């Protein structure tokens, strides 16, 4: 079940599908079920995912399907082993004894733990689809044990939950023209980097505030990622803190090659998210040996596994100051940065998309 969307879930979907194709057991093929889109997109999809056996296009677009499936309307009679890399899934009653099965993925428990950080519609849709998953899914995949624990407290899903994480993408490789790309991006010699959607849940506001207060880091902050919801205007927040573009700069959305360059040259990486399910950007920074500061969200603590500096986020008014202190301490300690760089590289190697894909195949075999 493919639902190409921007951001983390889109990257997760593409990387997992690519490895599902390459690890398919004898006699198994990977076919894509997608929402309606222009026919010329099929060839683009086949180029991005070579080895895809077939593409099944549904008659409705993603938005229409999302509304319909939330209420159990217009669900096609999809058979076989269906694996949905999100909650966007054709959940219905089926007979697993005839070989039909469906697994869905819930990436985080944010709609229950931090609903205020989502749009009202987004939180409602995720909770509704999770209830359908509880009723009809044969397995529910989550990225961390932290999310598994959080979901078991709000959903009665018993032993159907499986933990299968993500990994650094295969395309995130330092390019041969790294120097030219760094110049084109006008990267400073030292900088603090944060990657993620620019929205309230990602902790962008307290991070920018940290650069405007007493004890703020002396080197600039670079932000990478698409604009999100919540009317988070970085320029306005920056101005409120008395900062200009030399102190806090947005680079927008970058391709993998540019992102690799920006990650590789960062002095410190900060992931201040208020609520997460996995935190792939944190793992990507560790992959490049960048020392990491992150919030004490349970999923991030699990993924980082003491290879980063955790910052308490419980008291909102103190969070910016705590972030500034942690970043400043790390910038002042060369030995600590080196230790975290080594530990981070080691930690990132514990995750691979091949392993994730093999676990998915094993999950469906068990069903």
TrEMBL record:
The keyword Protease does not apply. Signal peptide: none annotated. Keywords: Glycosyltransferase, Transferase. It holds the Pfam family Glycos_transf_1. This is Glycosyltransferase family 1 protein. Residues 181-346 form the Glycosyl transferase family domain. The keyword Transferase applies. Gene3D superfamilies: Glycogen Phosphorylase B (3.40.50.2000). It comes from the Bacteria. One of its GO terms (molecular function) is glycosyltransferase activity. Residues 6-165 form the Glycosyltransferase subfamily 4-like N-terminal domain. GO terms for biological process: lipopolysaccharide biosynthetic process. InterPro entries: Glyco_trans_1, Glyco_trans_4-like_N. SUPFAM superfamilies: UDP-Glycosyltransferase/glycogen phosphorylase (SSF53756). It comes from Rathayibacter toxicus.
